[in-house]
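[agent] plan:
  1. take the single chain provided in the ticket
  2. run structure prediction with default settings
  3. attach structure tokens to the ticket
  4. add a short note for the reviewer (M.T.)
[agent] executing step 1
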Amino acid sequence: MKKFASLLLAGVLAAGLLAGCGSSNTPAETGSPAPSASAPAETGSADTSLEGTVLKVGATPAPHAEILEVVKEILAEQGITLEIMQYNDYVQPNNAVEDGSLDANYFQHITYMNDFNAEYGTHLVSAADVHYEPMALYAGKTASLEELPDGAQIGVPNDATNEGRALVLLQEEGLITLKEGAGITATINDIEENPKNLEIVEMEAAQLPLRLADLDMAVINGNYAIDADLSMADALAVEPADGEAAQAYVNVLAVKEGRETDPAIQALADALLSQQVKDYIDATYAGAVVAMF
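[agent] step 2 finished; step 3 output follows
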């Protein structure tokens, strides 16, 4: 009987040892530690942590990429790596967000984004409304509005949303009159009165600062004016920051529809709308960029 009890006890001990070996081998095979009772693997904090996340965001050089450098430092404190991909046009960064090669972009205003979606069939949405860049009229060959000759050439952006905005600014300065109701959707075909017979020269927005010396004047987007070291203080006319344009042309953090609730995108949006970023904008751009938060 004693011999039988001893054999039974030995069998139980052997089974316990085999079970212990089995559980210790499993994490070694997966390369991860065994889950603890207080933090089960399926609900552990490691699944929700953003530590090690990499975000690729497209931006035009100024002010967007410059602002993102501030954001990069904020996100680094959370263990998130921000890779800033610079572009010099308005089409590639949107296509890159649509095809997933970028997580987001930050270069465009909400009206341009909506028009781009309609024209190209993309699915971009705003994850954050960040800032407004007043569009301004700058002198080229002609130094002032008073000296503007008949037949003068004035450059404006050739994309639909920015062209209308430029024409409204020219109307506010008494240079042209647009058809009633044309507003920010105006095109050159909506010019009803042009007493100086001005030649409105349409060209890609990025080219306007480069061609300014060849034109009498040009209406230039804020980001391209900053790139060209054009000071808001030197502008001949500026959009009012409290007008319709401020809402219609707020610059946004754009993502593909469905990603706006992604925790990493939300962390990016929070960083963009932080006090550190607002302070940087106010101190750096002297009214050429206006925080909208």
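[agent] step 4 note for reviewer: Confidence is low (pLDDT under 50) at residues 1-47.
[agent] ticket updated
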